[in-house]
Amino acid sequence: MAQKPSIPKGTRDFSPEEVSKRNYIINILRHNFELFGFQPIETPSFENSNTLMGKYGEEGDRLIFKILNSGDYLSKASEANLSFKDSNALTSEISEKALRYDLTVPFARYVVQHQNEIDFPFKRYQIQPVWRADRPQKGRFREFFQCDADAVGSDSLLQEVTFIQLYDAVFGDLGLEGVTVKMNNRKILSGLAETIGEADKLIDFTVALDKLDKIGEEGVIKEMLEKGISQTAIERVKPIFRVHGNFADKLILLKALLADSVIGKKGIEELEYINTKIEALGLSTISLDLDVTLARGLNYYTGAIFEVAAPKIVAMGSIGGGGRYDDLTGIFGLKNMSGVGISFGLDRIYLVIEELDLFPAQALKGTKLLFINFGETESLYCLKAVKKLREAGITSELYPDAAKMKKQMSHADKRNIQFVVLAGAEEIEQDVYTLKNMKTGDQKRLSISELIQELN
Amino acid sequence: MAQKPSIPKGTRDFSPEEVSKRNYIINILRHNFELFGFQPIETPSFENSNTLMGKYGEEGDRLIFKILNSGDYLSKASEANLSFKDSNALTSEISEKALRYDLTVPFARYVVQHQNEIDFPFKRYQIQPVWRADRPQKGRFREFFQCDADAVGSDSLLQEVTFIQLYDAVFGDLGLEGVTVKMNNRKILSGLAETIGEADKLIDFTVALDKLDKIGEEGVIKEMLEKGISQTAIERVKPIFRVHGNFADKLILLKALLADSVIGKKGIEELEYINTKIEALGLSTISLDLDVTLARGLNYYTGAIFEVAAPKIVAMGSIGGGGRYDDLTGIFGLKNMSGVGISFGLDRIYLVIEELDLFPAQALKGTKLLFINFGETESLYCLKAVKKLREAGITSELYPDAAKMKKQMSHADKRNIQFVVLAGAEEIEQDVYTLKNMKTGDQKRLSISELIQELN
């Protein structure tokens, strides 16, 4: 019996319409990445397991898809692991490769492996799928695309300025108003923890703080107390729960709060530098905000932290993010290579653009006209026109069979083809083509050159 | 100690130059696919194992990369398979998913799964990587891209005509002269085997015949004799070893040879129909040839067989191929769905274009100008220009650090950046920018609008 076809959970087929819309976004990303001097690279879908394992924490290791070795893979497996059914221990004996989990670790590996071919600073972009064995849920997939731009080999804060401009350019080209790039700095978070005397509880402190918009001030305080952060410390930090105003206003409050913290002041200085430059250069579409509660990716970011919030009218949350990591390539033996990077969440941006109905008609450009097939002689007559139209860059097709007229018209209709051409004995006689507009029903007889002119 | 980074054998990193050149080819493919009315789809990188297994023969099954189940995958494994270390039997117990091996089976699965959304005939193209656990060797990789266009749901021979035109359009746009599309028809091969009384040895017969250009007439005869094809039969088939002339000439010979074979005559009729149409429509770049020895993919092609030969001046062999299969989707329960498709060999086309030095300079367009960084004030002055240049669509960058002049110039040089801008106190004073052509050494002072005009 034939199998009922299906695909693995958490993966997707993309229809022609979906691919066209995705490519519309990807083309805008690619165009802007290149306009800003980022160069494209691509890395293999799978890496040696030891390149990936241990880079994303225990949870990450678990979510990495492992590839079974080829051939008689059990021949080298230890008897003990087999008889104790020790999946964990067996994995490294029967699997040497794994699907990439993100684009950052492969990029770090690339930089180290190719360091002698690269002239630093190196700015690359990469648009490729990644895979995670996560529980599939709404908007979360096991195969999804990451769109990353990173710059390594310079600790200039002008890189951060450039990335904010890049966000502005991309969302401008997408026609997406109301996007906010929220910024913070790891050094501010360290300074806050330090200044309240809880430097050793930095992670607990920031994890709780990060939840402010979800669980509110009381919830955050409750969590901090549970984690052993003292009431006195919490009192000292309370002002930041209610920080408001623009970027510069918030900096004033932070300056007062962090006056005694060397690292905190460094963080303020960095944010102020970036904000001053952005103010001098101006933004067209996005706005920049300082969000002291932002702690995204705290375990690797060392300076700037970015998170991109979708327009408030759609309930989507983050559609991008990034930050600076001072030692991207150290894990692979290349020290002191500061990097900063951002990513765009393709799937979520797609959903936002769809919800706000911002995909332009040209993103869906398909076949412009279909020639109706009336039989042998007529089809050859039509194919000659089709050839000339294509040479003029106009997408056109002949229906391949001399099927019933109704069937062919319905095909044009279902595929949203705007025009059909009808050419029978009379048209051939006069060397013309009857062009019918499927929307208006208008018909006119045109010579081949008039036809090209009409549709160009 | 840090790991020395590497990638799995048979996989590749692509540098910025390589990605740009690959995208140049892919963009030409994509453009022509769409011009011809093919619609893009994408399918997941991995499929359920039962979708793939058993579709490519025993050898194929072995070469499919299997993905280990997540979590405690051994808990469901049978004790017997573990204790006997039976890799083969264990695989289906610990792996439910596998990386796709080609794009044809996933396409067939897609058509059946989405049959109610599709209005047939359905013409799709797909450009995605596939994976095979093959022994890596020169020009053969474990991860490589396939670029396929297929049309299903019509047995009109005009589809074959269209595919030949598509090859012509693509190789024309690539500027690649001297490509030959070789054609044959499965029915011709069946007719030949039938007419010499060896219909039951069709496979042995065609496999031997296919080797004519490698092992010569004597070699082919020797192999046929070894496979039990009679001397009498071989005598009857000898004329095809020496067939020559153009497409029409060869058809004349075949007509004489296959006069008594119903299926053979049907094959001739099909080839003649296609050739007549192509002659009436004309080809611009490629030439079409009839090659009776062509047996590529005999196990699934039922009508036309295509193979694309690279220009003779490069020793590359096949750079594409395809054919018609009358029952593409039957394996998934959708009967009577005739399909015809072709593929382009991206990696080999790349090598040919490279060898013949046909990549245009625009395929490598990188950053056009680099602004030299002289410090705080100067860099902000430059960033204002960079912003305006980018808005005008001109790729430009500011070097992020106020590094030594020599280092910055050398960076421009190594990245093949054509222009640098030098702007110090004097330029700021006069509101101009000094543009230096890196190749000629020419320098001139320009206002921002002159700069944009100069570089547009």
TrEMBL record, chains A, B:
InterPro entries: aa-tRNA-synth_II, aa-tRNA-synth_II/BPL/LPL, Anticodon-bd, Anticodon-bd_dom_sf, His-tRNA-ligase, HisRS-like_core, HisRS/HisZ, HisRS_anticodon. Coiled coil: none annotated. It is an enzyme of class 6 (ligase). GO terms for molecular function: ATP binding; histidine-tRNA ligase activity. It catalyses: tRNA(His) + L-histidine + ATP = L-histidyl-tRNA(His) + AMP + diphosphate + H(+). It comes from the Bacteria. GO terms for cellular component: cytoplasm. Its EC number is 6.1.1.21. SUPFAM superfamilies: Class II aaRS ABD-related, Class II aaRS and biotin synthetases. The keyword Cytoplasm applies. CDD domains: HisRS-like_core, HisRS_anticodon. HAMAP family: His_tRNA_synth (MF_00127). This is Histidine--tRNA ligase. It comes from Leeuwenhoekiella aequorea. The lineage of its organism: Bacteria, Pseudomonadati, Bacteroidota, Flavobacteriia, Flavobacteriales. The gene is hisS.
